[in-house]
Design brief:
heterodimer, A: alpha/beta, Rossmann fold, 4-stranded parallel β-sheet, B: Beta Polymerase, domain 2, 5-stranded mixed β-sheet, 4 helices, flat, binds iron/sulfur cluster
Amino acid sequence: MQNGSPGFFAGKLDELVSWGRLHSLWPFPYGTACCAIEFMSTESARYDLSRIGSEFVRFTPRQADVLVVSGTITFKQAPILKRIYEQMMEPKWVISMGACACSGGFYDCYCTVPGIDRIIPVDIYIGGCPSRPEAFFDAMLELQEKIKNQSYIEERKKKLKEQWESIKEWGLSIRNWKK
Amino acid sequence: MNDLILELAEKFGAATDERSIDKCAIIAAEKLIETVSFLKETHAFDVLIDIVGVDYLGMENHKGKRFAAIYCLKSTKNTARLRLKIQVDENEKIPTLSRIYPIADWQEREVWDQFGIVFEGHHNLKRLLNHVEFEGHPLRKDYPAQKRQWLSENDQMLDQLENRLEHLGYKVI
Ligand code: SF4
């Protein structure tokens, strides 16, 4: 604990939490175009995404962990996407599926967002037009690898520190106000 | 069908469009309502398939006005087709057809949205495809194709839905 590395219990807790997280990644399908069809086939019996724990596709952002953006995002659609992302609970991850979501694809025009990373942060990009289900699996496994290295304890520490700072600020402002 | 254009030429001063490969008559904007009602009543043109906008800016060998609106008519009785072309400049208006063909309501909104051609007498001329916050008319030739605009809020479609429901006889609370 003293020199930055978590102790035995904290380390085990970290492992337990990330083990739980990475084997129950519930996707939220934000499908707007042809790539969504490929996502559907990833979900269905032939490829079966539930093999790696993504058992349910949730159609409400409140219950989902991974936002899967599959398809072309237009500027008219962009405020909706941003809102959905903001409604998701922490921890949350974003997969950008297909050329359109990653970069706007071949729609080099006035109405298409050139990459969703201009609106929301993206964890994994998948190329292809459309990306194959295998590529999607690859992205999911990569995401799991990423989550494995995230530390729950560190996250909490950071959050608590932020909260403590804001409480202190609030207290200071009250004191100044009384003066 | 050429007889039809000749008849239109006699009655409403229509001209044949030389550029076009199929039947297309050029008529004046003031004669549109008369012509279309005549075609609908006596020649059974009962479907308005589409209204298409054209911007001729920068086109080679183009003389005359900058914009055109093309009305594609079809008859389900005798399978005839006819196109009517109306040429307008930026500040000229075309009378609305939405009282003769109800579908023209949305088609005219689309043409106005994309080209900025104004339809006089339209009861609800607002954007159909583009967002309410969008500025300009994107299919005009002088709109830069890659000029993107950030839009900040969700578009509300509820007013139209309510109109539609009321039109169908439902009561919106
Ligand atoms: S990347 Fe290709 S397949 Fe995917 S949404 Fe775009 S056009 Fe469709």
